[in-house]
Fold each of these.
Amino acid sequence: KVHHLADVEARAYAPTRKRLEAVAAAFPGKPILVTEFGAGAHPGQRGDVRYGEDVQAAYLEAIWRALSAVPTVVGGIVWAWADYPHRRTYVDPHG
């Protein structure tokens, strides 16, 4: 899970790219479309905090960079973004 901006490269980009490269190797020449990726956030919660919009944006950017780095990935569909806010009742965003 990505809880802070410092987590993005190691916990989002790197494993996503590694997994996509493995899928591409397992299915050579086949196009890959990634569906349902994203991260929930508390609307209006800014900064380097768990479920913050800044962390959400960095996560989405990192995943998109990973998709773009693998030649046979033809696209991706964001599932959790502005239309999917995380409910504050689940966790304390500062915890």
Amino acid sequence: MAAKEKPIKKGKLSEIVVERLNARISSGELKSGERLPTERTLAENMGVSRTVIREAIRIMVDNNVLELRDGCSYVRQLSFDEIMSNISKTIIPDEVSMMEIQEVRAVLEGYIVKKAVENITEEQIARLQEGIDRMAQVMAEGGNGSIQESDFHKGLAEATGNSALKSIYMLCEELLSSAQHNAWRVARAIGARITAVEEHQAILDAIRSRDKNRAEMLIQAHMDYACENLRRMYEQEKTE
């Protein structure tokens, strides 16, 4: 039995109970899939009524932290995507962490493009081509093609058919999205040559030809240039 906690004396009681239970879940004292102590036990340990405990549990169920099964409360088991999302909230988006994440992304991209060559469908190829065509149009009109670029790489991850790989890649993509957008802006501002359309078209052509080695070579060169743009952006920020 858990040690008796200090009685709750102020604030909205149910919210304080929620905070305490969340802390026990975060610390690992209450594990994913584990059944909570009974309402009576929780009430006695926290020095509150069972009505307060019941309200706190309702709040946590509504927030998808707990789930009810057969009249009992359990810590909800997180999906892989939810775990990835929680990880993203703990990463500080500074220069060092973003450059390191870009390195991880580059490694993933090499594997992703090879798996895409093996598994991509003609329909998926057609969607990627539409995205490149749209990128060319946006850039010709003076816009930023970073959104279309992001969609292209997400499409490649989708084409692998590996949901875990896609989730891990999407975590990197989510963390880098703002920095990548700014890197495009800085590259344009300093007059750097923007080769995104040509690079993505070449990658897609290699995939369409089922040329795994060429596709991997092209995407690694693309990642090297993306890393250079990101580094350039941070250098620019230091001078502003």
